[in-house]
Amino acid sequence: MTTKALTSVNPSKSTGSAAGSFKRLVGNRIGSAFALVIAVLWTVPTFGLFLSSFRPEAEIKGSGWWTVFTDPQFTLDNYAQILGGATSTNLAVYFQNSVVIAIPATIAPLILAIMASYAFSVLQWKGRDIVFVAVFTLQIVPLQMALIPLLRVFSGTAVADVFPFLSLWVAHTIFGLPLAIFLLHNFMSEVPRDLIEAARIDGAGHVTVFMRVMLPLMLPAIASYAIFQFLWVWNDLLVGLTFSGGSRTVQPLTAALAAMTGDRGQDWHLLTAGAFISILLPLVVFFALQRFFVRGLLAGSVKG
C-alpha cells in the first residue's frame, strides 16, 4: 500500500499530532525568527540597564539610555561609589554577605537532597513511599507560615550570636529541600537498575555505588538544581529581611538594594550600577554551568 493510500485510510496521519505540528512550526525559519525577536525584546531592558550604569548622573536624569548611540558619554564613577563610596551607598559588604549566604545555602540542600534521593530511590526499607510522599507534600507549606516560628528558634540564642548567618543557611536549606529531593529522586529513579545490580555483584557497597555510579550519572541534574537554588537564594528578599534583622554585617544585597530604592530612589546612576552588580554573579554561575543545565533538561525530556 502506498503512502497516499495510507493517508486516505487515516487522514490524521497526514496532519500529525499537535505536538508534532508545534515542533514543525518552531523548527522552521519563521519559528526561529519569532524566537529571535522574543530574545531581543527580553534582552533590551537588561542592555539598557547595563548602558545606564556607565552613564554620568546628569545624562541619566536628562535623557534615555538610547541617546548613548548619538552622544556616547561613559564613566566609572557610579561603580566607584557603589563599591567604595560612602557607607550609605557602599554595596561591597552586602555583596560579600550574599556570597556567604548563597554558597552554603546552595551546597547544603544539594548534599542532603542527593543522599535522601538515593535512600528513596535505591534503598529498600519499610515505609519508604509514605515518607517520600510526606516530604513531597512539604512543598505546599507556605514560606510565610514558617518564617516567624523559625525566627523564634534562633532569636536571642548564643548560636545565632556566634554564627550570624546560620539562621539564613538553615532557612534556605529547609525551604529548598523538598523540591530538591523530589527533582533528584525523579532523575535517580531513571538510572537503569542493571548498573546498580552489576556493581553490587562485583562487590560494591552502597557507598561505592553512590559515589562511583550514581554521582557521575547525576551530574547534569545536580548542576541544574544547583543553578536554580543559587538563583533563588541570591534573589531572595523575604528570608534575608526577616533573618538578618537589619544588620549590615548579615543583610544580603537584595535587602540593601530595596532599602536604597526607598532612600535614594532619585539616584538612578547608583541604582542601575547596583542592580547590574546584583545580576553579575548569577550570570557568571549560569553561563559556567549552562552546558550541564541543558544536558539535565534534555535528560528529563526523553524519560517518557
UniProtKB/TrEMBL annotation:
Keyword NADP: no
Membrane-protein topology: Multi-pass membrane protein
Highest rank taxon of the organism: Bacteria
Occurrences of domain ABC transmembrane type-1 (ranges): 95-289
Keywords: Cell membrane, Membrane, Transmembrane, Transmembrane helix, Transport
Transmembrane segments: 33-54, 99-123, 130-154, 166-188, 209-234, 268-289
Pfam families: BPD_transp_1
Subcellular location: Cell membrane
Gene Ontology annotations of biological process type: transmembrane transport
GO cellular component, one term: plasma membrane
SUPFAM superfamilies: MetI-like (SSF161098)
Matching InterPro entries: MetI-like, MetI-like_sf
Family: Belongs to the binding-protein-dependent transport system permease family.
PANTHER family according to UniProt: ABC TRANSPORTER PERMEASE PROTEIN MG189-RELATED-RELATED, OSMOPROTECTIVE COMPOUNDS UPTAKE PERMEASE PROTEIN GGTD
Protein name, UniProt field: Sugar ABC transporter permease
Organism the protein comes from: Microbacterium faecale
